[in-house]
Structure formats: structure tokens, C-alpha cells
Amino acid sequence: MVQRKSGHVTLLDIARACGYSVSTVSIVLSEAPLSQNVAASTRDRIRKMAVQLGYHPDAYARSLRRRRSQTIAVLAYDLSDPFCIPIVQGIQAGLHPADYLPLLVDAQTQRKLFDSYLKMILERRAEGVIVIASWIFQETNLLEDIEKNRVPIVIVGRDLTDKKVSSLLVDNEAGGALAMRHLIELGHRRIGIVRGPEELFDTEPRWAGVQRAAAEAGVQIDHKLVYQLPNLTDSTSGFEGGLRLSKEMLASGCPFTAVLAFDDLTALGVLRGLTNAGLKVPNDCSVVGFDDVLPAAVSTPGITTIRQPLKEMGLLASEWTLRAINSRDQSAEKPIKLYKAPPELVVRMSTARRTPASRRISSPKSRLTI
């Protein structure tokens, strides 16, 4: 076996092992038209030696020759958030058949890190960018740089079509209305509501949907039972906020029979808080989430939620990006697209019909009739 100085097996290594020139090895392994002029026995020997040495083509060198990186940058705001995982899976499923490699980076909910990664993505000549969005994206100043470099960009989770960015997101208002309508149809009227952080794009449309469904049913929302999550700091903020706010609801003395949480992690925090107070979900209080991430499905009880088609949204984002790259290569005008995915109610064990009989529930600070 030939001793190699470099880490990766190169064309030179194969040429030395076979006794042929590097140009001959390159012609054969690249299956160039000139390879037909090389003897069949020589071609066979070169290919067998390549397999024996574990040779793989140098994609980096090939990209320099073609001026194509064959990579799509996928910039997530926080990969520890279960919301991101199915979106990434969908993106990978869409890029793999096209021989594009997703370059996955995690901004860890830090604005400076987000901007730094966007600069690195441009420097490494990614052919497209898919952003799994949060509040940190809208304030970046690099959108113009991406546009000037004609790099297609698609954002998942926010509408930035006004900034000429194709956008994919769920219909948040319709989802909020679905969640509220479900609880009302189960007979709940005293409903605690945990709104999302003020700076999140999803918060206001979901709240608008909740209010619309309540108004249509003639249900009065008690604003003493409306709480708001603080601004996010990490992926556990929603859970911790739901836990804390559920305790505040119980301590407030305001009766309630259900809680509509901003998302599934918040709903899981509410579930923990109610359980710690000795309440049973859904017998004593129903709980609804939003997103349909994996923890909501495997918790006890499983969380009734509003499903976002997250994997499908990731798949569509990859398709849009590849089409935009092809349009750019053909000097065609890049259309700006907006897709609002329809939400779906997923009923699990955390919600139940409200019975006429009321129960007296003990709370550390008060006794509540709910």
C-alpha cells in the first residue's frame, strides 16, 4: 500500500499506486469523453485502485472549477427548539435528490451570531439561504447584501415578502381561532390565555384568531386571565414561562376551566404547573398548545394542539430555493412568493368536555371554583 502524505486520497495517490499519469487517472475517474481512448484494462485497474484506496472526488476543487458550491445554507435560530427539527428534515429531503448539501448553522437565539453566520455564508458562496426564522432575523442589515449578490433566500416562519423575501409560514390567525373554537365547543367559557412574547411575529395573529373565535361564539374573554410570555432567551423559555404563569393563574383567584397556550412547550409548562398544584388534566382543566412538536405527542397526557405542517414547509422551502437558483442561472426574474399553510387541530388527551358540575380545587394561596 502506498504511503500518503495528505489526509484524503488524491488522484496523485491513485496514479502512484497504478503507475499511470495523473491526467490519465483524472480522465478515467471523471468519465470524460477521452476516457474511451484509454484501454479497458487500464480503466478497470484505475477504478479498482480508487475503490481499494477509498477515493472520493474533491467536491471543493470541482466547485472552484464550476464556480458552483452545491450547498444551501440553512440558518436556524435555535436548533435545540423542537420546532426546528422537522423543518430541517423537510429541507434535507428536498435538497438530497438535487445533490445539494445543506450547510446547517445554529444562531442560538443570538443576533450577533446570526449576523456573523450570514456573513460567513456569503463568503463561502452558498448558492441559496433558507432561514428558520425568529425575531432576530428582521433586524439584520445583511438582507441587502444577500440581494445584491443575487443569492436566493427563503424564510420559514415569518412573512418578509415586503422585503422581497419569499416566505413560508402557518396561517397563525386561523390556528388561533381553531384552538379557541375547540375549547368553546367543549363547553369552556372561563379560558386562561398565554400569549406569545411581544417581539414574536406569531403572537398578534394568533391572538387575533382567538379573539375572533370568541366573538363569533359570544364568549367574553376575561382579560384578568390573559397573560403574556416574556421575550425569549432560549428554547426552554416557553416551558418556564408556562410553568410560572400557570402558578400565577392559580394564585389570582380568577376561576378558569381551560388554558390556551401560545405553543406546545408553553402548554407543557402549564401542564407541569397544574399537576404540581394537584390538578388533573383534563379532568380539572383542559390545555391546548400550538405547533405539534414531538414532546407534545409523547407527554402524559398528550397535548391537544394546532399542527403546523413543519416538515412539508421545509420541503417546500428547499423546492423554492432550487427553483430560484435555476431561475437565476437562466437570468429569469425571481418571483417573490408567500405561502400560508393551513393549520390542523390535533385532539389528544389534554382536553375534555366541560361538565355542568363544578369542583372546589385547593390552591396554595386560594381556593378556586373552576
Description:
With 370 residues, the protein is α/β, with parallel strands linked by helices. 42% of the residues lie in helices and 15% in strands. The protein is built from 14 helices and 14 strands. It has helices spanning 11-18, 22-29, 40-53, 59-66, 84-95, 111-123, 135-138, 143-148, 172-185, 203-217, 237-252, 264-276, 294-298, 310-329, and strands at 71-76, 101-106, 128-132, 153-156, 166-170, 191-195, 226-228, 258-260, 286-288, 305-307, 338-341, 344-346, 360-362, 367-369. The strands form 4 sheets. It has a 6-stranded parallel sheet, sandwiched between helices. The protein has a 4-stranded parallel sheet with strand order 7-6-8-9, with helices on both faces. Helix 5 packs across helix 14 (310-329) and helix 9 runs parallel beside helix 10 (203-217). The longest helix has 20 residues, at 310-329.
